């Protein structure tokens, strides 16, 4: 039965991927996948050399063991964003005389076919064969690979469970990211050292191969937990009920803002209810931690304010980048109905500015915690914020009036190039080029602080002229409205 169901899914995969899509995009995705797999394999073969260059004089096996848990911690985060839930694939079979245990077994087997399960094998197995096996022997090396497999499958089924629980209760999202934030902060501020823990645990597995049973038991436990959850919740009426329940969510606090508030509520509902849009929220939350990458003490000590400014622009404007590049396309499925109704275009455009400004402001307050590292980062982030709410938002809406490709918001975001055209690539390039074009010459002529002040003032002036920008962009939208509608109708 599982083989038959997998055959059905394989046919559905090829037919859906080839129907109504560009062959060039499929070839591109295939090349990207092969490139990632080849890169992982190459990394596995040359990892010994990289370790020797980066950690001279240290035992490659010890260094390698010290970073394994880092990899799997990062793997959990990547899986949460990219790993798809195959639940909907079995809906058509729920009405047939097929045992639920068989459907769940099929669901678990099907979920294993992901590139995320191949990458650790391609990285770790070559290193184990070339370095670990000659040093510790065949049996410990085999046990080590088994431990890697156990950790891989534990992450796989653990994330499936977390994502399914998050669908039922959105507080699981919050709890997951609070846990991630606490974990990152604890390691960053040296409350504990994940590298030391990883080196000790994985090193012990090389000395005592029987300890490899621990990751295997963890994987079996995660699988069984996931299996029991599906066995309890896999009912067609439950799926339909959940879909209906979501339609009742209201944001009454926005009603006080009139039509603009109602339009913002539509955007918020869209963000929480659909796969691709919801991934924007997840990416926004994840990228908030990129401040630990941009705001390094080395950059502060050397006065590398240009790099820090890029970080400030990125952090405070990442929602505008992610959501703004498909600004009107998010609603392409019902755009005809919106335009046919009694909707004031100027109010519609204005609501987008208010949404962007509100989210950027919230992000500014959240990321102000980076000021604990150095108070000057608050000024850098303020400069980035004023650029984003004053200039970046205008650029986002302008490019949205030149985007004519619709998107299916029910599909996942990972490796999904639907709706991406030339305007999206140019937009992404422009939003980071403009501040650098302003900042770099001024920092050379004067200094970095004056350059950031001028950039901030320009952003503030543009923000004060927002109503004028709304009028200009409304005219641009009206000029291209029918072309946008025509593009959104294409499947």
Please provide a written account of the structure.
- This protein is an all-alpha fold and 491 residues long.
- It is globular.
- Mean pLDDT is 83; it is low at 236-248.
- It contains 21 helices and no strands.
- The protein folds into two domains: 22-245, no CATH class; 249-489, no CATH class.
- The two termini are 34 Å apart.
- Helix 6 crosses helix 7, helix 15 packs parallel to helix 18 (376-400) and helix 17 runs antiparallel to helix 18 (376-400).
**Number of strand elements:** 0
Number of domains: 2
Mean pLDDT: 83
- Characterize the largest beta sheet: strand count, sense, and whether it forms a barrel: none
Uncertain residue ranges: 236-248
Question: Any idea what the radius of gyration is?
Answer: 25 Å
**Intertermini distance:** 34 Å
Rough outline: globular
**What is the helix content?**
over 70%
Order of helices and strands: HHHHHHHHHHHHHHHHHHHHH
| Total DSSP helices | 21
Structural class assignment? mainly alpha
Report the portion of residues in β strands: under 5%
Features:
491 residues, mainly alpha, 21 helices
Can you summarize this structure?
Helix content is 77%, strand content 0%. With 491 residues, the chain is mainly alpha-helical.
How is the topology of this model organized?
Elements: H1 2-18, H2 23-54, H3 60-82, H4 100-111, H5 115-136, H6 138-168, H7 171-188, H8 194-207, H9 213-233, H10 236-246, H11 258-273, H12 275-287, H13 291-294, H14 297-302, H15 305-324, H16 335-340, H17 345-367, H18 376-400, H19 422-445, H20 448-464, H21 466-489
